[in-house]
Amino acid sequence: MSTSTGPEPSIGLTTISRTVASLAVAVVHTLERAATGDGRVRTARDNAWEAVCADRARAERRAELDRLVAELAAARAAARDRQPVG
Q1: CA-CA distance, 24 to 30, in Å (whole number)?
Q2: Would you give the end-to-end CA distance of the chain in angstroms?
Q3: How confident is the model at residue 5 (pLDDT cuts 50, 70, 90)?
Q4: Buried-exposed string 16-35: b where 16+ CB fall within 10 A, e elsewhere
């Protein structure tokens, strides 16, 4: 009777993918530091602040568009009310 502790460890597609992704992140990080300098490397805080600013800008544009649509609807209703009936 053979006692097997499980399958032999092997390198699978997911292991290779994770390794490649990890190496790619390290290369990008190193290149970013080399190109911009240590003081200018983006951080999670920078990314989060940029996302907050983008969300605020989208909300402002959406509010402006809503305001314009409301003005157009009001102008259309006013024009319809001024038209003679019949």
Answers
A1: 10
A2: 100
A3: low
A4: eeeeeeeeeeeeeeeeeeee
Q: Residue 18 and residue 3: Cα distance in Å, rounded?
A: 32
Cα separation, 58 vs 47, in Å, equals 16
Q: What is the pLDDT of residues 11-68, one digit of tens each?
A: 666 777 888 888 888 888 788 777 777 667 678 898 999 999 999 999 999 999 999 9
Predicted confidence at residue 2, as pLDDT, reads 54
Tokens representing residue 60 in the block: 């402002």
Report the alpha-carbon distance of residue 30 to residue 35 in Å, rounded.
9
Residue 8 has phi, psi (to 5 degrees) of -65, 140
Cβ proximity of 32 and 41 under 8 Å: yes
Q: What is the pLDDT of residue 49?
A: 93
Q: How many CA atoms lie within 13 A of 85 on its CB side?
A: 1
User: Nearest 5°: CA angle at 28, between 19 and 22?
Assistant: 15
